[in-house]
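quick one: thiamine diphosphate bound model?
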Amino acid sequence: MAMEKMSIAKALNESLRKALDTDPKVLIMGEDVGKLGGVFRITDGLQKDFGEDRVIDTPLAESGIVGTAIGLALRGYRPVVEIQFDGFVFPAYDQIVTQLAKMHARALGKIKLPVVVRIPYGGGIGAVEHHSESPEALFAHVAGLKVVSPSNASDAYWMMQQAVQSDDPIIFFEPKRRYWDKGEVETDSIPGPLHKASVARTGTDLTLVAYGPMVKVCLEAAAAAQEEGKSIEVLDLRSMSPIDFDAIQTSVEKTGRLVVVHEAPVFYGSGAEIAARITERCFYHLEAPVLRVGGYHAPYPPARLEDEYLPGLDRVLDAVDRSLAY
Amino acid sequence: MTVESTAARKPRRSSKRTSAVKTTAKTSAKTPESSEPELVQLLTPEGERLEHPDYSIDLTADELRGLYRDMVLTRRFDAEATALQRQGELGLWASLLGQEAAQIGSGRALRDDDYVFPTYREHGVAWCRGVDPTNLLGMFRGVNHGGWDPNSNNFHLYTIVIGSQTLHATGYAMGVAKDGADSAVIAYFGDGASSQGDVAESFTFSAVYNAPVVFFCQNNQWAISEPTEKQTRVPLYQRAQGFGFPGVRVDGNDVLACLAVTRSALERARRGEGPTLVEAFTYRMGAHTTSDDPTKYRADEERASWEAKDPILRLRTYLEKEGAADEAFFTALDEESEALGKRVREAVRAMPDPDPIAIFDNVYADGNPLVDEERAQFAAYQASFADTAEEGK
Ligand SMILES: Cc1ncc(C[n+]2csc(CCOP(=O)(O)OP(=O)(O)O)c2C)c(N)n1
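yep, here:
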């Protein structure tokens, strides 16, 4: 057993290194991923060890990055592309939605598109415009894509391994404000399935569902609620498409209450999807309506206001209280 | 001929085609396309053979007849598809009428191990790749969105979003180079598509990575109702120069020139010298698609002037003049054309609608529980009608 404590950033770096090492068809592509190691250093040192042919600095053209990755995948490669920041994925959105997502079906399954699109996402780092967004619902809505986000170092390590090995295109959202959070990574063990939710904390009074950066906030909220005598279960969704509804159902059948938390705007967000499905599945188990906590229907605000915009401990606890009051 | 000097490549009004003319006067920015563009031509509209210093070609009578046969059969197939649309058998058809030389010339320049990324009108190229023409009709009939295995003929699926496939071609070509293979890749697109960012990005990527890709732009003068002047202020082939690779304009109605120029560009790619942009200067004789009405935006005389440049007629004139084909050849080809038309007609009419459950097929390679759930619900819902029908008996 090889147990190591490392940050999420380091876990991703180690995971990509392992992927490059294991399969010569794996390629890393993106802006500044070479010498610099990416603006978040996720690909640090990889070009030095694997060369410019495997770790490719690309022109500054997002559609070009994803479009050529599709071509490379058609040739038998497994490209892992980095989009520098969430707000810059949109020039590539066309290629992702009209091409990457659909090509397997259009070819009646004869070709596969094993492309991973890595996107550092979310707020909380005091960045300028277009550097703090959570566009996961825009991708989860598209059939043919799978959308995941780890919340801790161990998941970062293993989910990246699984994403690279997947024959489907994976949109891999990395919670950038958690990059430097450390955790134990067991680098030898066989991981659970990529799209399975995990119980991050057990409880009996209410279920909090979150993913990526919000898992930590929910764990803190659950700890705070514990001091008030409330037992909160926290479910780390890990995958936004597909969603492990069975895991949510199991938890809600136990607790009878559900609050979904994410940074993205609540309107048309993943919380809406979860609320609808769980209401359908667990109508007679629910003691309260499913509540959602998330961003507002407004452009992501300037950094000095992001603490107001992002769900924090208090807003999560407020929703917990409202649910328990039913 | 590659772009060495922009001045030498300025469109000119002279009708002489082979001597290098240096235009010293500044060309007015108002007239990006002249009526007589400079282009590589090996066979005139009158069926005269020309020589070109950079693109010589020497074909046997058999090969010449082969090119002619390809063009005639492709045109016949295209006409049949248009008729089938009129008869309600196809929802839409994008005709290649007038572009046979560009497609057969470039298509016959390819080797089996080359890879083609087409748009939605490359029926002639598909023919050259050995794709069964009836396979091309599935998406126009509405029974699939592509429906063939791209790897069985190295012919990718038709791409509707204009320009997207140029990036796929470039990425694929980058992979070819990584593999150390000596095959080449060709991407087809139109003059309208040349305005898309993806095309510009594919030029950038292919130049930067020296990818073995040939960009084959069929400038058929129109992007639905928009003329080429609405896409560009300089002749399209000249655009390549700014990206750092050669561009060449070829008479797109001259199958020999299209073959020679494409062959040369492919060989260049194979030698590891990177991309080339070929602009095939041609004309879309029919409507953009069967839904289009070209009378609303273009004059009849324009079409008539291009009729005189018909790619098939000029090769026929040449074949006859050279004694390379006799009456028996043409008669046999007529019969073969009719047989092809009949086969296509019958195949389309026999094409079954897909099983509705196919909606859920191949959404994911590794499966997805949501798709499984919706498939099961859909199947149960469908089955409920069977029960009703049963009860009604
Ligand atoms: C991104 C995109 N925008 C618009 C369309 C609709 N459309 C289909 S074909 C076409 C014109 C394309 O013209 P061109 O590239 O010159 O090719 P041609 O059809 O003339 O061969 C347009 C506007 C499309 N398919 N894709």
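Chain A has a mean pLDDT of 97.
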